[in-house]
């Protein structure tokens, strides 16, 4: 019964170590990732219903296709992949450790036959002197060999870059570290957003899909937001917010500008410039001059606001357009005299003389306007990000070692053959076999040269 | 002269090199091979200069803040063809196997033709989301990978032809086109190296996977 139980456990172990499982999980991950690329993730129900029918939407929603990187089946595949990776590494690591630290010094004939890079020569002389020659040959052309004697045969073993065999495990470890970093980020981190109008201050943010705001233990004020364009085109050049961070009543970061790829970080939270929008109507700066007088009054007005002039007449901004047809910024003013009929006047920023030519008792000019904005910030906290970066560095290192370096081993086996010495040269590499074959061909020629010299 | 005109000359240069390399396969003439290599080098040098010139031009347009010319499909494809030539010329310096040119240079020529005829070559300054050095690193690693795969493709085709002939020597008189191919071992070695160079940038992608997903959300505003 004990044997049977071990058999089952052994089968489970073999299943998690199998290459078939690796291929299955890798291909499944690749194929399912296509879903995440084709279907936009994390949109609202309304946005999906514009593309899909009610029925399709429900089906895809059930299958968690709209947030597939967090779906149970995708995470399940990742877990399966990780277990597979760990089991394979655990299974193979001891053998590789042995090859590196305890190399096969005296391979028997069967083992030697399995290597395809072989050359054999028979030379005159005694074993000791040929061994000495072969030792200096290997030291010169390859690396210093270790000598072992067994059953009348002399074995010389030399290798190069034996640590290249560990590159694979560094890569495997790096994948696990990256996953670990992602898990830390998912558990202890969050992703949220916040909108701040110019001049406004916030001390709470909104999580994605969250109904209640999350308080943060400091506050952020948006001093200013601006958007600039290249030349006269509509192509945006820069979105810039100027932020001030206030912690316990003290200004800790003062007027720090942030742009799209240059966020602000404070206490583990990172604020990225993400979007923007208008916060209410434009503020229009109007100058009023009474004809024949020198005095000029200036007023900052919002649409709908009424203000009184010095002599009791009133003006109101009835409408404003930042781009009125081709004429640029324009405002329609309503003049409400103390007595008499109200009348409307249109002023243009680009044509300051326009209203003067109307010959009215007031001369209005539209000096400038200011569009109040709110800035949209993405707020993230990801304590796992440095773990992920460590994993990235290890992965690049591991891949470089695993793919570009190769553990090369050379054996020279010398034996007595009817008064002569049989010399066999055997080589093996754990990577880039074709490259090693070319190298071995050259080595073989030198080997023959050395042996033919007497 | 603008970079666009220079890129036209580059395209013509690669076309000439391609035809001459194919001519070399047919004639086995060392002179033809030398001439082909000369065109490949000349095209590469002009292309290097033209890429530099385009970089300079990005500063010259009105309101242009300047950027490394690796920001859109046109510029990437031009860089792709430049990288193919770079890899090919390195192989040429190391192995002096001119026949490889006939299978590798066509990729560079096709890329240049596609870019010059079909893609939008306007220099447009970068929108905020793309104003990041990551964009440059990303395009360089990506297209280095693609170029290495293109070289691997060319070399693999040669390998398949070569192996078929080596297995079946009675098929045609000794020599022929295949006679001047490098040995299958060399082709196999080149192929291994090219694929490894091609795979490494994938690792950059995988490594930045987590970071990238977040970054993409910022890009998509």
Essential attributes:
heterodimer; A: 454 residues; alpha+beta; TATA-Binding Protein; 4 domains; 10 helices; elongated; B: 221 residues; mainly alpha
Report on this model:
The complex is a heterodimer of chains A (454) and B (221). Chain A is of the alpha+beta class and 454 residues long. Chain A has four domains: 2-84, no CATH class; 103-161 and 406-452, 2-Layer Sandwich (TATA-Binding Protein); 190-278 and 374-381, no CATH class; 283-371, no CATH class. Chain A has ten helices and 20 strands. In chain A, the strands form four sheets. An eight-stranded antiparallel beta sheet of chain A has the order 8-7-6-5-4-18-10-9. Chain A has a five-stranded antiparallel beta sheet with strand order 1-20-19-3-2, with helices on one face. Chain A starts with a helix and ends with a helix. The model of chain A has no long low-confidence stretch (mean pLDDT 89). Chain B has 221 residues and is mainly α. Chain B contains seven helices and no strands. Chain B has helices at 3-27, 30-60, 73-95, 101-118, 133-167, 184-207, 209-219. The radius of gyration of chain B is 20 Å and the shape is globular. The model of chain B is unreliable at 210-221 (pLDDT under 50). The chains are: A alpha+beta (454), B mainly alpha (221). The A-B interface holds A 69, 174, 178, 181-182, 185, 191, 230-231, 233, 235-239, 259-261, 272-275, 378, 380, 382, 385, 388, 391-392, 395-396, 399-400, 403-404, 432, 434-435, 437-438, 441 and B 62-65, 124-125, 127-129, 131-132, 134, 185-186, 188-189, 191-193, 196, 199-200, 203-204, 206-211, 213-214, 217-218, 221.
């Amino acid at each position: 019964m004990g044997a049977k139980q071990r058999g089952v456990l052994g089968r489970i172990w073999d299943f998690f170590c199998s290459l078939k499982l690796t291929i299955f999980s890798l291909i499944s991950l690749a194929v399912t990732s296509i879903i995440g690329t084709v279907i936009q993730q994390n949109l609202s129900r309304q946005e999906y219903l514009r593309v899909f029918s009610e029925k399709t939407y429900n089906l895809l929603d059930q299958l968690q296709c709209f947030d597939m990187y967090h779906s149970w089946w995708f995470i399940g595949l990742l877990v399966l992949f990780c277990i597979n990776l760990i089991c394979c590494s655990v299974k193979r690591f001891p053998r590789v450790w042995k090859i590196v630290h305890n190399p096969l010094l005296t391979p028997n004939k069967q083992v030697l036959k399995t290597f395809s890079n072989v050359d054999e020569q028979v030379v005159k002389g005694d074993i000791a002197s040929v061994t000495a020659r072969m030792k200096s040959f290997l030291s010169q052309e390859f690396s210093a060999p270790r000598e072992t004697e067994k059953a009348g045969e002399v074995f010389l073993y030399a290798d190069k870059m034996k640590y290249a065999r560990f590159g694979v495990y560094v890569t495997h470890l790096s994948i696990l570290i990256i996953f670990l970093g992602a898990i830390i980020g998912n558990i202890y981190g969050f992703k949220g957003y916040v909108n701040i109008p110019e001049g406004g201050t916030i001390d709470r943010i909104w999580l994605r899909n969250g109904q209640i705001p999350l308080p943060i233990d400091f506050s952020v004020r948006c001093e200013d937001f601006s958007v600039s364009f290249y030349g006269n085109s509509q192509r945006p050049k820069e979105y810039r917010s100027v932020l001030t961070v206030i912690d316990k009543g003290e200004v800790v970061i003062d007027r720090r500008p942030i742009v799209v790829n240059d966020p602000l970080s404070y206490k583990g939270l990172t604020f990225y410039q993400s979007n923007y929008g208008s916060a209410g109507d434009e503020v229009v700066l109007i100058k009023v001059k009474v004809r024949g007088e020198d005095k000029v009054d200036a007023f900052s007005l919002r649409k709908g606001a009424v203000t009184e002039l010095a002599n009791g007449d009133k003006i109101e901004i009835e409408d404003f357009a930042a781009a009125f047809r081709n004429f640029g910024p324009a405002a329609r003013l309503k003049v409400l005299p103390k007595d008499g009929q109200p009348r409307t006047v249109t002023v243009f920023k680009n044509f300051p003389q326009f209203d003067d030519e109307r010959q009215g008792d007031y001369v209005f000019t539209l000096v400038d306007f200011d569009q109040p904005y709110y800035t949209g910030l993405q707020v993230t906290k990801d304590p796992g990000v440095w773990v992920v970066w460590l994993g990235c560095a290890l992965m690049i290192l591991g891949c470089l070692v695993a793919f570009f370096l190769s553990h090369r081993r050379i054996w020279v086996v010398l034996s007595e053959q009817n008064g002569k010495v049989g010399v066999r040269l055997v080589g093996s590499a754990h990577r880039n076999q074709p490259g090693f074959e070319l190298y071995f061909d050259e080595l073989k020629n030198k080997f023959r040269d050395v042996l033919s010299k007497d | 002269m603008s970079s666009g005109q220079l890129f036209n000359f580059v395209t013509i240069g690669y076309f000439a090199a391609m035809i001459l390399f194919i001519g070399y396969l047919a004639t086995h003439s060392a002179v033809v091979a030398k001439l082909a290599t000369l065109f490949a080098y000349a095209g590469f040098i002009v292309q290097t200069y033209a890429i530099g010139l385009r970089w300079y031009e990005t500063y010259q347009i009105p309101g242009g803040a300047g950027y490394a010319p690796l920001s859109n499909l046109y510029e990437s494809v031009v860089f792709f063809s430049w990288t193919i030539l770079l890899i090919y010329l390195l192989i040429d310096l190391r192995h002096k196997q001119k026949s490889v040119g006939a299978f590798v240079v066509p990729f560079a020529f096709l890329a240049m033709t596609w870019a010059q005829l079909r893609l939008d070559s306007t220099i447009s300054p970068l929108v905020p989301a793309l104003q990041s050095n990551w964009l440059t690193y990303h395009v360089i690693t990506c297209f280095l990978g693609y170029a290495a795969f293109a070289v691997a493709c060319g070399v693999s085709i040669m390998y398949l032809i070569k192996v078929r002939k080596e297995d079946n020597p009675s098929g045609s008189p000794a020599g022929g086109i295949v006679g001047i191919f490098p040995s299958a071992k060399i082709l196999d070695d080149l192929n291994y190296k090219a694929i490894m160079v091609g795979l490494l940038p994938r690792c950059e992608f995988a490594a930045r996977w987590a970071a990238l997903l977040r970054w993409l959300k910022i890009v998509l505003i």
